[in-house]
């Protein structure tokens, strides 16, 4: 009887809404909520406080671009990018690499190149940079902004385009060879409106790549919404249409002029409605960090306070939108109530949502208000996202120690990586 009462209480507490963007996205639907990060701001503690609290995914805003990583031909420079990757990965945030091949922010030496010399330099750049970060990047924006605006549906003219129409697929093949485990994305802006010629042209390219086996895994919609390119009512159709090609979709650089709550809420709900929409990245934390700071397009004001749009996004993430692709089989049996083999408090596992490739777990601690819990994961499974605790890892990456940070329930998402049966084990619960 006592056990049954305990179980009922646990269900109630695991249904409580999470209070940060990343935790809500992860806990409710296995998604991420991320932000662009500038290395120069990592020394600003007001900035990193919000970053570390709210986000579980990071995209370097400029530090992985071609001019940053290969300022002189053949001389690679990774310091700022490495700093961001280290900051993110030590906190279990996933990293989106941005970007390997682009017409913009090229170093001077590349701007002056053409023909096969440029093609080879571009491919070498892709190979070197993807190799340097191999194993650390969840998704690469392999190619950025390769299509023209307007009604032509044509490729954008650029030095890279003039090396031949196959430059995009060549870049994807080089990235795949260098980092076979990263997901490879095509990223662009003004591909939000399903009726736009540019959207249709990118769609046809992805369709062609899929049919010919060119290694593309995902499409990124930058989604910089302004007066000029506004949030379209058919955005969800665009997301689901790309997804129907067998690629994931990501909202990669979201910012909206004046941050209207409605538009932010709708964009969030559109992503939640499409199973293959893996997450949302906003293009900066505070308005003062934005590349369009004059338009105040972000979720935090210059003082780091949450804006109305923040509340709208958080509520949408928490809104109980049914997780979009859960496996309908019962939750894993595993060891839901295994008592800790050691320690002086009790940590109880509640299995969460299971998807095809990953599952959530929450753990509730009783018998202590401050505590540390040791949890073991079975390789090759790997924890990809955590919430509501402070997490650290042993050198194997399979054993995590979680310290309380105010909540008596913490949670995490585990990628199955081919092993769908193993479940986390509580090793100990220690008060204090
Ligand atoms: C922007 C950065 O935010 C600025 O700091 C930089 O000066 C220019 O680039 N599309 C992209 C991003 O893919 O890389 C751009 O980032 C914004 C538009």
TrEMBL record:
Active site: 253 (nucleophile)
Region (Disordered): 320-344
Keywords assigned: Carbohydrate metabolism, Glycosidase, Hydrolase, Polysaccharide degradation, Signal, Xylan degradation
InterPro entries in the record: CBD2, CBM2/CBM3_carb-bd_dom_sf, CBM2_carb-bd_dom_sf, GH, GH10, GH10_AS, GH10_dom
Ranges for domain GH10: 22-316
Biological process, per Gene Ontology: xylan catabolic process
A Pfam short name: Glyco_hydro_10
Pro residues biased stretches: 328-342
Assigned EC number: 3.2.1.8
Alphabetical list of PANTHER family matching this protein: BETA-XYLANASE, GLYCOSYL HYDROLASE
Protein name according to UniProt: Beta-xylanase
């Amino acid at each position: 009887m006592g056990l049954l009462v305990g179980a009922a209480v646990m269900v109630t507490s695991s249904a409580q809404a999470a209070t940060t963007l990343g935790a809500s996205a992860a806990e409710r639907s296995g998604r991420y909520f991320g932000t662009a990060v500038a290395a120069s701001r990592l020394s600003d503690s007001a900035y990193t406080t919000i970053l570390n609290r709210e986000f579980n995914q990071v995209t370097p805003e400029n530090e992985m671009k071609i001019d940053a990583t290969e300022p002189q031909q053949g001389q690679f420079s990774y310091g700022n990018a490495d700093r961001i990757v280290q900051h993110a990965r030590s906190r279990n945030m996933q990293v989106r690499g941005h970007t390997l091949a682009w017409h913009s922010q090229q170093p001077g030496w590349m701007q002056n190149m053409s023909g096969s010399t440029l093609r080879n330099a571009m491919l070498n750049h892709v190979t070197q940079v993807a190799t340097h970060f191999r194993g650390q990047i969840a998704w690469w924006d392999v190619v950025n902004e390769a299509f023209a605006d307007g009604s032509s549906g044509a490729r954008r003219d650029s030095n890279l385009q003039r090396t031949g129409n196959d430059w995009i697929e060549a870049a994807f093949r080089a990235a795949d060879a260098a980092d076979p485990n990263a997901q490879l994305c095509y990223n662009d802006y003004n591909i939000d409106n399903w009726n736009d010629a540019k959207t249709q042209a990118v769609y046809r390219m992805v369709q062609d790549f899929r049919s010919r086996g060119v290694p593309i895994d995902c499409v990124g919609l930058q989604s910089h919404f302004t007066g000029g390119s506004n949030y379209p009512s058919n955005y969800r159709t665009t997301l689901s249409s790309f997804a129907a090609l067998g690629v994931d979709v990501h909202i990669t650089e979201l910012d909206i002029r004046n941050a209207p709550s409605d538009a932010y809420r709708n964009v969030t709900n559109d992503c939640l409605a499409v199973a293959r929409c893996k997450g949302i990245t906003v293009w900066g934390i505070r308005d003062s960090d934005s590349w369009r700071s004059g338009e105040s397009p972000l979720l935090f004001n210059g003082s780091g306070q949450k804006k109305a749009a923040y509340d709208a996004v958080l509520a949408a993430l928490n809104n109980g939108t049914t997780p979009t692709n859960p496996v309908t089989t019962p939750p894993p049996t595993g060891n839901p109530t295994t008592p800790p083999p050691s320690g002086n408090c009790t940590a109880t596992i509640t299995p969460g949502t299971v998807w095809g490739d990953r599952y959530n777990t929450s753990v509730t601690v009783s018998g202590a208000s401050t505590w540390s819990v040791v949890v073991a994961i079975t390789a090759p499974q790997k924890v990809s996202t955590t919430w509501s605790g402070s997490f650290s890892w042993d050198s194997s990456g399979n054993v995590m120690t979680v310290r309380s940070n105010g909540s008596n329930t913490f949670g995490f998402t585990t990628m199955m990586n081919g092993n769908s049966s193993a479940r986390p084990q509580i090793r100990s619960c220690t008060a204090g």
